[in-house]
Amino acid sequence: MIVIVGCLVVVGGVLGGFMMAGGHIGALFHPSEIVTIGGAALGALIVMSPKKVLIDLMKGIMQSLKGSPYTKNSYEEMFKVTYNLFTVARKDGLIALESHVTDPHNSAIFNRYPGIAKNHHVVEFICGVLGPIIEGAAKPEQVAGMINGEVKLIEHHHHAPLSVLSKTADGLPGFGIVAAVLGIVVTMEAINGPVEEIGHKVGAALVGTFLGILASYGFFAPLATRMEFMGESEVSYFRTLGTIIEGFANSVPARVAIDQARRGVPGELRCSRERLDELFKEVDAG
User: Fold this and answer.
1) Residues 184, 268: contact at Cβ < 8 Å?
2) In 73-207, which ranges are E strands?
3) What is the pLDDT at residue 1?
4) Which pLDDT belongs to residue 31?
5) What is the DSSP letter of 113?
6) Where are the domains of the chain?
7) Rounded Cα–Cα distance for residues 178 and 205 (Å)
8) 272: DSSP letter
9) pLDDT, tens digit, for every residue of 186-202?
10) Which of 25, 160, 242, 243 could cysteine-pair with 147, CB 3.0–4.6 Å?
11) Could you report the per-residue pLDDT of 118-146, keeping only the tens digit for each?
12) Phi, psi angles (nearest 5°) of residue 181
């Protein structure tokens, strides 16, 4: 929602200033310029991007419009599900986690926390790291490397679509110039026509430059930055989750491991120590 509001403010500011200066909105409406710039930008985006990156880009844009799913509540659910899992392991041994890790969709623990259960990336991360630990295939000192590898993969997953969106934003002013040059070519063909017609065509050409620059700095570049922040919030979430699991692998008590990880959570998302104790009590009472 905040992205939509921001876009409306950009449009409102530009059109408001234009009208205050005596301009008419109709003078900015030239479909041919929009088609030229939009088609060139879309074509360049398709040329530079593999299919997977295009799909990830569309998903990233949609997620940016919805907002980050990694909220304070999602962190609290993460603390609860890991505490629940590790409490079971402490009481009944690592083997008790095997059924939850191998079949998380039917796990009573995962299904107890809907926010976690519905996020398959989080479930796969937990199960992917805990699996080798439960099987004895990974030593405690190897867990950190496994977690870092998973986090780097997440970072790469965000970098590719962000890169192509940024390059598209950089190219839009150039496409605006292309549209303007084509507009001038059309104007030259009508150079012997009425002054009003020539003025209209020159205005249309200038609108091409205007639209290219506005789309770049007013929409695409800010959207790329927004996606960058979204990616950082996801990486931060998984680093926190990885810290908890690494502590568990090194025999750190669940409460201590989670509290240590909590201290690294960004301030606006971090729950207090008192709130953390309340979460532990909720799990124990469950």
Assistant:
1) no
2) none
3) 66
4) 86
5) S
6) 2-7+33-285
7) 9
8) P
9) 888 878 778 778 887 88
10) 242
11) 998 999 999 999 888 888 777 878 888 88
12) -60, -45
